[in-house]
């Protein structure tokens, strides 16, 4: 018999998440929801309990608390639900039967959209790799995670297109590159190539690969096509708490990661301040603006849906209403007096 101690539940959860190829971001999110759930129950009962000792009733109480007392959004509550269902079903091998919790109401709001003049003023102030990322957010309607995850092979300058791999819902799509960015991208790739060549000379481990692809093709992680389109300027050490490399992907130890989302956010905030815009502008506002401006140009809603990668066209239809308002199609009766 082995005297090896039973791994902690958190380690089991991490192991299953990595085995099923969940992203590092999802892994950390699920771990945090698991911890919040256990802490909530400890505070409610006055003692720590293992999730295996709990079940549907405790999960329902936790989710209800998020909606009623914490005022969390519907999407955040659903995220917590997904995390706990995964924990029970995939790790503890328990089903949460008849789960009944107070659900948070999904907000119905109109997204913030910039005018084309505001976008022009904003983009005039961005610079560097982060600035190029900001331009792609608007120019291609990408999510910030999609921009950061681009590989060199995904950006086809000669073909004038970007291939988004494994976007939200694990869907792929192709988007036309703005012609105005082609020269900037070519110059950017020259700088990226210099970073890539330096990494190879210095023996820096290859980049992280999707879905254990480096097991199928071990050399791919150190190849030019798979290098990040927006690499970080620094070499990072992404280690476990005990100092050992993360399991499942060699580049999760010491290696070159892609640009961090914070760098894009800071560049966007700097450009917004420089442009003197009064609207609250986030990366997603540029995506909303991209979609609305396409509708203003007469692009049909189904095409916009495909470009955005929406599963349901009803999600995309909001941009039709925004475009009508921006065109001034619905006027006030005050103007008829």
Describe this structure in words.
This protein has a 3-stranded antiparallel beta sheet with strand order 1-2-3, with no helix packed on it. A two-stranded antiparallel ribbon has the order 4-5. The longest helix has 22 residues, at 24-45. The chain folds into 2 domains: 9-91, DNA polymerase, domain 1 (Orthogonal Bundle); 109-328, Orthogonal Bundle (hpI Integrase, Chain A), CATH 1.10.443.10. The N and C termini lie far apart (91 Å). Residues 239-245 and 247-252 have low confidence and may be disordered. It is built from 14 helices and 5 strands. The protein has 337 residues and is mainly alpha-helical. Helix 11 crosses helix 14 (318-327). It is globular and about 60 Å long.
**What is the second-level CATH architecture of the largest domain?**
Orthogonal Bundle
H/E element order: HHHHHHHEEEHHEEHHHHH
Could you name the CATH homologous superfamily of the largest domain? Intergrase catalytic core
Query: What characteristic shape results from the CA principal axes?
Result: globular
Structural class: mainly alpha
Fraction in helix: 40-55%
Classified by CATH, the class of the largest domain is Mainly Alpha
CATH topology of the largest domain: hpI Integrase, Chain A
As a percent range, the share of strand residues is 5-15%
- Summarize the main sheet: 3 strands, antiparallel
What count of structural domains?
2
- Say how many strands there are: 5
Terminal residue distance: 91 Å
What order do the strands of the largest sheet run in, or round the barrel if closed?
A: 1-2-3
